[in-house]
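For the sake of clarity, the format in which proteins appear in this thesis is described at this point. The fold follows as a row of integers, each naming the local backbone shape at the matching residue. One such record is shown here in full, so that the layout can be seen directly:
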Amino acid sequence: MAPSAAFDWLMEQPPSVISRKLRAALTWQGGPSRLESIRLADGSVHFDGLKFQAADDPESTASDWLQWRMIEGAIGRLPDTFYSGVWTLLAHTPALVIGDRYNPRNTLDSALLRSQSTAGEKNFALTVEHILNRIAAPEYRHLVIEALEALMLVTQKNPGLQLQDALIIDVLIGHAVRLAWCRGQQGDHPPYDEVRDQAWSAFYQLPPHQVAYYVTDALETLLGMADAPEVGVEEVDG
């Protein structure tokens, strides 16, 4: 069930049902965050590792990567292959949710869209464009685009990867931010929820190849693929 459909169903339930569902979520084995896990489809394979390099980052005249994302997100300039890449990505998941997960207009139904359109069809590109344009903050809009591009690379290298659940980009990015922050801390440090704003600010300042790394790492984490090959990130001096 898509998040928007689940939300609509929940809103129709009496308080007793909502209370029971909430208690079940809070006592879920592994903690509430496990509710956001993604299941592999039967017969799917673990994905091979990828390397993201600083040499692949775009040239920028912006003062920092946050400003670059604000500028690029406002301009809305995308590679020619972006929309066809999203169309291909849909073959690996039942649905792709971009932006507010509780808005049904933000869900791309894979079976429906792939049966009614082709990779290069203008109407499909417009559908994706309209969803992206509903994201108000240009810097976050571009972060979503970067996440989608990282997922495209994963599925290009791993054509047999099939997910049983929808890919919710907001969830994926949220976990990427948490991973980036927590792995950058040493010794005693405040709980993540107390420094969430700092974590997001720091993430916006990461170069694109590191964002791609953490998005892919977040996917691996949500899949529960503890034994999967580690995704590499390389720094290049200068």
